[in-house]
Amino acid sequence: QKEVEQNSGPLSVPEGAIASLNCTYSDRVSQSFFWYRQYSGKSPELIMSIYSNGDKEDGRFTAQLNKASQYVSLLIRDSQPSDSATYLCAPYGGSNYKLTFGKGTLLTVNP
Amino acid sequence: DVKVTQSSRYLVKRTGEKVFLECVQDMDHENMFWYRQDPGLGLRLIYFSYDVKMKEKGDIPEGYSVSREKKERFSLILESASTNQTSMYLCASSPNRDGGETQYFGPGTRLLVL
Q1: Cβ of B72 under 8 Å from any chain A Cβ?
Q2: Taking a C-beta distance cutoff of 8 angstroms, is the pair B101, B33 a contact?
Q3: Which tens digits make up the pLDDT trace of B30-79?
Q4: Of the candidates B41, B45, B105, which has its C-beta nearest A44's C-beta?
């Protein structure tokens, strides 16, 4: 059974701080990794993808991947109240067309 | 922009009714997916399709069926709705046959079965 583990939160940070969201996965053949943001009552939207070890930056977002440790993280710099949402980690295993979603971490950014 | 649309945002049905949820994508994507999302359980895959008339069971296919007669349209069918099928249903699509590309989600259908 492929598993994706995320701290459910809530993770609470003050506005302007760095929010750090973590994810571990069990499937060693996972090749691609996606972070989705989901606002309450809305559908998930992609915010970052990462395919190789190291860091990938996109604006205020940085995704970090360590395949040896089976660990992927998302850093949000200069957090804003509009970043308050649930963040879903989703590795892709490469063999069955499917993403495996974690249950998500609820982030709250306090003004 | 990729657009995935779902036929209804909210739906109320009675136990035993046959329910059709429709999903349409306009980007010529190969793969389409149906999920349900429940508090504490996360996103769970019901069925997916990687080609017209092709379908594969996901993690929780029981009580559901699907149809993909055209590439852009993927339907989820609840043959006889039950109260435990009350949920948020999300459709998604992804571009390529290998599935490694991003999945794009529709707005969701919140189904209440009474």
Answers
A1: no
A2: no
A3: 999 999 999 988 899 999 998 898 999 999 999 999 999 999 999 999 99
A4: B105
